[in-house]
Amino acid sequence: MSRTTAASGRLPQAQLRSLGAGKGQILRYLVLPANYGTLLNVLRVNVGLSWVGVIMGEFLVSKAGLGYLIVYGSQVFNMDLVMAGIVLLALCAVGPPGTAAAGSAPGPPPGIPRTW
After folding, report:
1. Is the pTM of this model over 0.85?
2. Could you give the CA distance from residue 105 to residue 40 in angstroms, rounded to a whole number?
3. Distance of alpha carbon 45 from its chain centroid, rounded?
């Protein structure tokens, strides 16, 4: 929570409180937009690590899936099957175009003009 306070700053919080903002409004309009980039980066890293866990689980005990496809292809010396599995895995890791717009800040709430 200290990073959140450091990123958003105490002064804007005090200003919002003096205008009658509650904790939920401060969270929604100050803290979350100030930490949007960090939240996206953390999400990206955690999703990548979860993919590693899923594929490792498929390598060890599965009878279906991309991990099984890659292991089976390597066991029968079918490099086309292995490469197809790796390409599919890479495409799944990247995701559809335009879904991970890192660094783009959210817009202001409706009715409030953008000031930056």
Report:
1. no
2. 10
3. 7
